Protein: DUF1211 domain-containing protein
Organism: Candidatus Competibacter phosphatis
Amino acid sequence: MGKNRLEAFSDGVIAIIITIMVLEMKVPHGETV
């Protein structure tokens, strides 16, 4: 793969990981962090 394709692939993977991490965060109800 070329450098541009590798950068686009890694950017996509990082974006997916961040999205999953944000969706997995649960808001604590009445608890201190």
